[in-house]
Design brief:
- The chain has two domains: 155 residues, Rossmann fold (3-Layer(aba) Sandwich); 123 residues, Elongation Factor Tu (Ef-tu), domain 3.
- The chain is 31% helix and 27% strand.
- It contains ten helices and 16 strands.
- The chain has a six-stranded parallel β-sheet with strand order 1-4-3-2-5-8, sandwiched between helices. The chain has a six-stranded antiparallel β-sheet with strand order 11-16-13-14-15-12.
- Helix 5 packs across helix 6.
- The protein is elongated, with a radius of gyration of 22 Å.
- It starts with a strand and ends with a helix.
- The relative contact order is 0.13.
Length: 310
């Protein structure tokens, strides 16, 4: 997959795509449907996705609590897995935010990217102050010479599949419910960082990963699937992970600490993708290290049983 970030200088081979437009946070089933429609609209055209970085919500409210389901690298990886050929990851800045709906259609979609067809969700808004609607985009497309398809919102039972609904499921400690809307496990991706190395002394050496900038799922202990994405030991592992602020040790910066079952090796600076499968319990502060280790043994046994049944 090719990633293009400057709409001012898109070469001819990268023009003429049929593209879905949106933020695609989580790349959930609703997003997949929009992308599938872009392919179906022009099967002979390159399949593209137009998205924005930073997320417009981050641009307009930089001090708001983290809300993203995945970072840019994880999003790109997921889009590539489903067959996207051209990812137009456009900078969302003051110039982009000030474009009128007409200017966005003309300068970005038509002149800049040279798109042949675009697909947007029924609730799509664009242009300055989000004044442009999906219906307006239909008119711009007819006038400017590109096709437009409006995708209906996807429902799953009584709920609309959305990034908000997925965040709510994760906040409630229901990763399987989130996965049903995502179409894949919710994952936290990133490099393994150096920590306090307490787990090694407890018999549970962990891979520590930051969750900065991401929506925090419910804190506690999870059964997890872990993909090591590089190196001679790359592959999938089962494990148990603690997500939260480690109240046992008086710390308050949330992170993810993952223990890989039956793994021996060096993990620092390796890139992991940790899938949350089931929330086992909330965070606790134990009376002693011995009580903590006993609980960790029980957590590991429960996680092994859950993951063996997948």
């Amino acid at each position: 997959m090719e990633i293009l970030r400057d709409y001012h200088s898109v070469a001819d081979p990268d023009r003429g795509a049929s593209a879905a437009i949106g933020n695609f946070d989580g790349v959930h089933l609703g997003h997949r449907s929009v992308i599938d429609m872009a392919h179906a609209a022009c099967p002979d055209a390159p399949l593209g996705v137009v998205t924005f970085e930073p997320h417009p919500r981050e641009y307009f409210a930089p001090d708001a609590p983290p809300f993203r389901l995945m970072g840019t690298e994880a999003r790109a990886h997921q889009l590539e897995k489903i067959g996207v050929e051209k990812l137009y990851e456009l900078p969302f800045d003051a110039a982009m935010a000030s474009l009128s709906p007409r200017d966005f259609a003309q300068q970005i979609l038509k002149d800049g990217l040279g798109l042949r067809h675009v697909v947007v969700g029924a609730d799509f808004c664009f242009g300055k102050a989000r004044k442009g609607t999906a219906e307006q985009l239909l008119g711009f497309g007819a006038e400017m010479g590109f096709g437009v398809t409006i995708a209906p919102l996807m429902a799953q039972g009584p709920k609309t599949v959305s990034s908000t609904a997925i965040r709510n499921a994760l906040s409630d400690g229901k990763p399987r419910q989130a996965a049903a809307m995502l179409g894949h496990w919710h994952r936290i991706d990133g490099p393994v960082e150096h920590g306090e190395k307490r787990g090694r002394d407890l018999g549970y050496p962990t891979a520590n990963m930051s969750i900065d900038g991401l929506h925090p799922p419910r804190f506690g202990v999870y059964a997890v699937l872990v993909d090591m994405l590089e190196g001679p030991q790359s592959g999938r592992y089962h494990g148990v992970a603690s997500l939260g602020v480690r109240p046992m040790f008086g710390e308050n910066k949330a992170n993810l600490e993952t223990f890989l079952f039956d793994f021996k090796g060096y993990l620092y600076d390796k890139h992991l993708s940790v899938a949350l499968v089931e929330h086992l319990r909330g965070e606790e502060k134990f009376d002693s290290l011995e009580t903590l280790i006993t609980q960790m043994d029980a957590d590991s046994a429960q996680a092994r049983s859950i993951l063996a049944a997948l």
